[in-house]
Amino acid sequence: MAVLTLPKDPNARTGMLALLGACAMLALGFASVPLYRIFCQVTGFGGTTMRVSEAQAATVRATAKTISVRFDANVDRQMPWKFGAEQTTQDLRIGARKMAFYHAENLANQPVTGIASFNVEPELAGKYFNKIQCFCFNEQTLQPGQRVNMPVIYYVDPKILEDPETKDIEQITLSYTFHLAADQPSKALDQSSAAR
User: Fold this and answer.
1) Of 36, 53, 176, 180, which alpha carbon lies 20 to 30 A from 17's?
2) What is the mean pLDDT of residues 136-141?
3) Kind and range of the H or E element at 174?
4) What is the largest CA-CA distance in the chain?
């Protein structure tokens, strides 16, 4: 293993330390986005929802108390898709699993790959909103004119009722925005309509 030794000259040592500090800051800058995403997924910060397995969901028991979930759908202005929710709201018992559907249609004359970002409002509810299955976990590719239904299977954790800041929430809004996938530049898209 190579050991870094600092030069004896004070000016060279200062320059070397400044270079090492700059490299460390650059590395931290690149790592900040994935680290922030992990932090949000673990804590629910910023309305980030939780992702759970079928096995984890199977251990949750539904309560008698109900809550309303409102569904919101948006597309980035560079995204040539029509995207919406099949239902405006759903009422469910807290702890019970529910399925909701969104739909997307590619309006371009070529395949388009998108990825959905998501959050919930109020933000404090994020750590209690659990998704078992979601189209947002992966990129979605639609062929020209293709229309698909995309399910979300979710539940609201009964622990929301034990938190003094969230126990009185009556409605949670689940919001998605579709963006072009990182490997698909918007300038390459022919945004003319395929079939409306």
Assistant:
1) 36
2) 88
3) strand 171-180
4) 73
Q: Which residues fall within 8 angstroms of residue 83, CB to CB, at 6 or more apart?
A: 73, 74, 75, 102, 103, 104, 105, 176, 178
In angstroms, the CA 189 to CA 179 distance is 13
| b/e sequence 111-127, b meaning 16+ C-beta within 10 Å | ebebbbebbbbeebbbb
Nearest to 131 by CA among 171, 176, 169, 87: 176
Separation of alpha carbons 98 and 169, rounded Å: 18
Residue 72 has pLDDT above 70, yes or no: yes
DSSP state of 50: E
Share in percent of the chain as helix, strand, coil (round to 5): 30, 35, 35
d(CA 181, CA 192): 19
